[in-house]
Amino acid sequence: MQPESQSKTLRGNAGYVPKKQRALILQGGGALGAYEAGVFKALSERLSPLEDDRQEGGKRQHGNLFDIVAGASAGAINAALIVDHVVRNKKWEGASDVLWNFWQEISTPVFWPDNKWFSNGWQFWENARKWQSDFFGKFVLPNLPAGNLREENLFLPYYFLWPDNLGPLASEEAARRYWSWYQFAFMSGGTPHVLSPGIVQPDFRFNNPYNYLVRYSNAPLLMAIKKHWDYEKHSIKTSYDKNEPRLLFVSVDVKDAITATFDSYEKENGVWKTEYAHETAGDSSDDDNDGRKDTHVIEYEQGLGIGHLLTSISSHLRYRPPDLEATTITEEGRDRKSTTLKKKGVRYFWDGFYLSNTPLREVLQSHRDYWHKIRNHANTLSATTAAAISRAKETDAATVPNLEVYIVDLYPTVERDDFPRDPDGVQNRVGDILYHDKTKYDQKIAYLVTDYIDLANKLIRIAIEQAKDRNTAESEIRDFLETADPKSKKRNGKERKYGDLLGGRFDVEKVVRIELAADDKNDIYGKAFDFSSGTIKQLLDKGYSDALRYV
């Protein structure tokens, strides 16, 4: 960070584009967010800020440790605490301590699994299970009738009650974690510093007494956050010209089932807003019915506040879903121009991890949009087309910095232990599959798109160079690039031109994935809810040691 007096002189330098920037992407995972705090501590100690080529008084300006910090759910909390500290203190030093202290503060001792009686009792059960299994294997199993008797209809309901199908007893450490999260999730006291006691919602729609939800309030968590980010006094509103990092939250619009990205950097015309669109297909046989598009615009002139963070950290079990005021622009009919309606209302949101627990796509799109369209004012058609032709002719300078990405993955991709067979193991693996980092496919697609763009640029260059009249050839190519025929749409639902597909591209130079180990034999399904002091300390320490191996 640079002092305010220095950073002011850098404003308005729209022509400058750094060669590379660095992004940190933090997943959601409840209590597993403590692992990210450990990772960030190690990265803070080992990584050096990227150099910034801007000159100030003849001296090179130092860049940020991370230019973009993005997150969903628990990752959004960590991202907010990091950026708030950096902006208010104008330095990165101390940000890792804020995260470390926060996770220690919201952890809590557990009254049962952490005492010697639990340990002694579990050892007794381990010995009893071993004796039972040995006895059945030696004396009962060999004497069962030949054939698959246990899978006959008469005996099949009791299939998992045979001693050799019980499976191994959990380790003492796994049992400690399991009963810790069980205490937090199902006992009357709630989760101290995180969630209120359960709020039961009966089923009055169908009058089914067995169908109900146990909801929660995350007000205790907000109070814990406020100790480190005074969100009532300090919203987060950052600027590249002030050498400040960019903060991104990812949430899910409940009604439209699409992601919304909240951004601490300004958009066009100096406005802070989030804009996203949902399209409904029309009847292709009816020329007058070409579908409907709803564009939602949420403005936040004061910057990102606790209301925006709430949209990213509140699951469907929050007793009242977070909402934000929005302006919805509805376009219907042929080419979306026959009917336009602007209406104010509220949009409801759920936790970002439901759709984008690793928001790499949102980071890449936001990065391109800021530099190509806002920073370098290439949001006009002519500017975009000119940039595309210049790049094809290899005469342009980059309009978007390349990116170096660090991703913290809280859910293991590969199951390195035996195939899960017990109820907790099966549910745990399902959770890992649902929420693990799926961006490797996105990364492959990004590289593939880059290859296609390089191919298109080379073909354009060859066409211009081989043409008898280069000016005519370039004019025809320019007209073609200004054609609006591509099937894909922009993030805000607007039509793309061919020139949009070629302009503003950049390379992802490096992706570093730091993954919470997949070979943890003490892993449990409820790991996201285990806020016990012992588990949080383990996660902090493990995140720190794991990250050191990567950097």
Automatic annotation (TrEMBL):
Gene3D superfamilies registered for this protein in UniProt: Cytosolic phospholipase A2 catalytic domain
InterPro entries: Acyl_Trfase/lysoPLipase (IPR016035), NTE (IPR050301), PNPLA_dom (IPR002641)
Listed GO biological process terms: lipid catabolic process
Keywords linked to the UniProt accession: Hydrolase, Lipid degradation, Lipid metabolism
A GO term for molecular function: hydrolase activity
Transmembrane segments: none
Pfam families per UniProt: Patatin
Domain spans labelled PNPLA: 24-225
Coiled coil ranges: none
Name the UniProt record assigns to this protein: Putative esterase of the alpha-beta hydrolase superfamily
Organism, as annotated: Candidatus Nitrososphaera evergladensis SR1
